[in-house]
Amino acid sequence: MKKIVLVVLLLGVAGIAGVVRSHSKNGSRVWPIVIHSDKQSAGNARDEIRKSFDLVAGARVEVSGINGWVKIETSDRKTADIYIERLGDSQEVLNRRKITIENTAAGLTIRGEKGDGGFISRMFGSNPTEHVTLRLPKQISLVTNGVNGSVTSGGIDGSLEVNGVNGKVDVAQASGSADINGINGNVSVGLSRIGKGVDISGINGNIELQLGEEVNATLEAHGMNGRVTSELPNVVVDKSSHGSYSARIGNGGGSISASGINGNIRLTRMTKTVTSDQEKLGSWGKPAFPT
Q1: 112 and 159 fall within a common domain
Q2: What is the chain's Cα-based Rg?
Q3: Shared-domain flag, residues 129 and 166
Q4: Fewest CB within a 10 Å sphere: which of 30, 34, 258, 283?
Q5: Which of 20-24, 88-92, 111-115, 252-256 is least confident?
Q6: Which pTM was predicted?
Q7: Which helix (H) or strand (E) holds 9?
Q8: Which of 96-105, 123-132, 148-157 has the lowest mean pLDDT?
Q9: Considering 138, 166, 190, which residue would you say is the last residue of a domain?
Q10: For position 278, what pLDDT does the model report?
Q11: What value does the mean pLDDT take over residues 153-174?
Q12: Residues 174, 280: one domain?
């Protein structure tokens, strides 16, 4: 009796194996696997932020933690207009990050940071893209930190700080001190005058310094994987050793220090004072602020 039961069981197993083998040959999926994606609906999710604030002369404007480009128009005005566009595959993706805007007596801060998404989605999901467009007064100091995209600005009558940018940096004009550090891209900055000095370090790209006619400075560059050249009159660039250069601009004076540059430095003349229209357009060639 036990032998009969065993034979029946073996025949049953063989029959099941034959069915599985037959379905596999016919191309059917015996064990389907479903993979869930972050995209919950067709098309992209999008939102906008529009705000306006009055700024006092000399206000500090800081833009930090942005996952996308930053474009700034400047002119003779007292109001700061803010337009931010955020794009993602779904609303859940947009929720993974948020934009915080703070306006105080000292200035304006625009900061991108983690949103309300869960730990798993923040760690492994995609982040939304953020595009920041600003209309600002000229009489400000400008600070940008941690921007995953290009930074483009019209001229300002104040100091400049640009740190941790994954993209090109193009600032039509700054006045006073300038600190430019940790840039993965080409850099072009106009300097109408140098106050406390200019510090440039950790640049993976070429640098163009457009200097005003009244700028008097001494340039020292070390750790250069590239050259320093000048298109300015009566400026001689000296190479003291491998990767080290120096130059006297005008009567000398204000310090321009460069170190850790993987690219060339070119000194050029700012041909004329940046006009109001140029300040509004910036270097991207057309009005960037959406209507």
Answers
A1: no
A2: 29
A3: no
A4: 34
A5: 20-24
A6: 0.79
A7: helix 2-25
A8: 123-132
A9: 138
A10: 44
A11: 98
A12: yes
